[in-house]
Design goal:
Blueprint lengths: L11 E3 L2 E3 L4 H32 L11 H14 L1 H33 L1 H15 L7 H8 L3 H25 L3 H9 L4 H36 L7 H10 L3 H29 L1 H8 L1
Antiparallel strand pairs: 1-2
């Protein structure tokens, strides 16, 4: 029998047997590592398959160079400094468009979600707009804004607005009416009701919309920069494709994929930090 004063998790030998109580934090770390390993298996398999197919002659290496060559080309672009020039311009465009879309979509979506009659009247127009191909509208944006920065930012805004707007509307509509009624009964004024009750309840849905909007901003960015641009990640990929510099082209594609994953990871972390109250409510 262990002594009563021995702390949990200590290693002790009793009668030739070794007992180990792993602390809660240790178990959590092991679980996280195991989950990370499970997620990495599929990606590692894809990378190995990508590396093997051209080296074994199963795919033309000119059309699909080995993964290691694409990564080496990407590092070379960073070493020459060319990559930083394209990254800075792309982040400027997508960041400006994403911020503009969020500033417009969140308050408008909150208003429409709160006013069900307005939402019912405008919803057919919203559905028609969001189901219209963004790339099909690119010539229209060029006619109105020209081939400069305005048309590129505008097309990214158009593609980013809809997931943020629709998720904000959905989040506000699904707010618990009992909580709203309780807040009103406690004298919470209408001006504070949104800030203290409705927006916090709709926040998880709004943050989901921001994540989807960020993904759309990256997709639209690449498409917008492939036409009429002289800098940017999309322009770089299209430039190398035209010159048959295939490893550099795939290097740019790999970087955009990694950038999208990092942005999504950051927004997931932000969502978890801003919605800790939700976890506490579920546990309670």
């Amino acid at each position: 029998m262990p002594n009563a004063g021995e702390p949990a998790g200590i290693l002790a030998s009793r009668g030739g047997a070794v007992h180990c109580n792993v602390p809660g934090r240790g178990r959590a770390a092991i679980i996280r590592l195991r989950r990370a390993a499970e997620k990495s298996v599929v990606m590692l398999a894809v990378v190995l398959l990508w590396e093997a197919l051209p080296r074994l002659g199963l795919v033309d290496p000119f059309l699909l160079p080995p993964f290691s060559e694409a990564v080496a080309s990407l590092f070379h672009l960073f070493l020459t400094g060319e990559m930083f020039r394209h990254i800075a311009k792309s982040l400027e465009r997508s960041g400006l468009a994403f911020a503009a879309a969020a500033v417009f979509s969140i308050p408008v979506g909150a208003f429409m979600g709160w006013n069900k009659r307005i939402e019912r009247i405008i919803d057919p127009l919203i559905q028609a707009c969001r189901n219209t191909s963004t790339l099909a509208l690119y010539p229209v944006f060029i006619l109105f804004f020209g081939l400069g920065e305005a048309s590129k930012v505008a097309i990214i805004i158009w593609g980013t607005i809809w997931p943020i707007l629709l998720n904000t509307i959905s989040g506000v509509k699904e707010c618990d009416p009992l909580l709203i009624k309780a807040a009103r009964s406690m004298g919470v004024p209408g001006s504070s009701l949104f800030r203290r009750v409705i927006i916090p309840m709709a926040l998880p849905s709004i943050l989901t919309g921001l994540r989807l909007g960020a993904a759309n901003a990256i997709l639209m960015l690449v498409a917008a920069e492939m036409l009429g641009a002289d800098r940017g990640l999309g322009f770089m990929i299209f430039y190398y494709q035209e010159r048959y510099a295939i490893p550099e082209m795939f290097g740019g594609i790999i970087f955009i994929s990694v950038l999208g994953v990092l942005i999504n990871y950051g927004l997931v972390k932000l969502e978890k930090s801003l919605t800790r109250w939700k976890e506490g409510a579920v546990k309670g």
